[in-house]
Amino acid sequence: MSGIFNSSIGRKFAMALSALFLMFFLLQHFAINILSVFSPDAFNEASHFMGTFWAVQYILQPILIFGVIFHFVMGFILELKNNKARQISYAKNNGSANSSWMSRNMIWSGLAILAFMVLHFIDFWIPEMNTKYVLGDMSGMHNGEFRYFHELVEKFHSPIRVGAYVIAFVFLALHLLHGFSSAFQSIGANNKYTKSLQGFAKIYAIGIPLGFIFIALYHHLTGH
Amino acid sequence: MNLTLKIWRQKNASDKGKMVDYQISDVSPDMSFLEMLDVLNDQIITKGEEPVAFDHDCREGICGMCSLYINGEAHGPDRGVTTCQLHMRKFKDGDTIYIEPFRAKAFPVIKDLVVDRSAFDRIQHAGGFISVNTSGNTQDANAIPIAKEAADTAMDAATCIGCGACVATCKNSSAMLFVGAKVSQYALLPQGQVEATDRVLNMVKQMDEEGFGNCTNTGACEVECPKGISLENIARMNSEYLKASLKG
Ligand code: HEM
Ligand code: SF4
Ligand code: FES
Question: What is the fold, at CATH topology level, of the domain defined by B3-111?
Answer without folding.
Answer: Ubiquitin-like (UB roll) (3.10.20)
